[in-house]
Amino acid sequence: MLAALWAEDLQGIIGKDQTLPWHLPNDLKYFKEMTIGKTIVMGRTTFEGMGSRPLPNRQTIVLTRNPDYQAEGVTVMHSVDDVLAYAKTKEEPTMIIGGAVVFQDFLPYYDLLYRTVIEEKFSGDTYFPSLEWQDWELVSSIPGVTDEQNVYSHRFETYRRK
User: Backbone phi, then psi, for 104, in 5-degree steps?
Assistant: First the structure.
């Protein structure tokens, strides 16, 4: 099973200059809860933007076209097919976490979508790819708590492919 996990603003922006354009601790907590103990897949640029180190208590796959790329503590794969074959061996969903090119490459294969919608408009340079929303069923939409630490209204949505 394959799932995408991302946060976006009202314009579909997911990044700016290889980082998140917002600070939202609730979403970071959600990300951790959704990925702990699971396999996460990201592109090389996303991995390097996170400091080139794997996240604790997760199996990390870095997807790159560079056949010579190596990084400590991660599994390097070179094709969508490699990741799909690996995901079929797992009971838990394999979580695709970015960036935009990797999200795009896996669009036909997602079974689940986990999207955080931040009810603001930010400046950014990276967008989540367009989805055919009629192919997806909203399973849940849970409002996030807004407080001094989490100043942006947000919600956590789960979709299942129809």
Answer: -60, -45
Cα separation, 14 vs 33, whole angstroms:
19
Whether 150 is in a domain gets the answer no
* Residues 6 or more apart in contact with residue 75 via CB below 8 angstroms: 59, 60, 61, 62
Per the document, the length of the chain is 162
The model's pLDDT over 110-130, given as tens digits with 9 standing for 90+, comes to: 999 999 999 999 999 999 999
Give the CATH number, domain containing residue 37.
3.40.430.10
Between CA 135 and CA 145 the distance in angstroms is 29
**Residue 21 near residue 118, CB atoms below 8 Å:** no
Residue whose token pair is 């997807």: 63
* pLDDT tens-digit readout, 7-56: 999 999 999 998 999 999 999 999 999 999 999 999 999 999 889 999 99
Domain membership of residue 48 (yes or no) is: yes
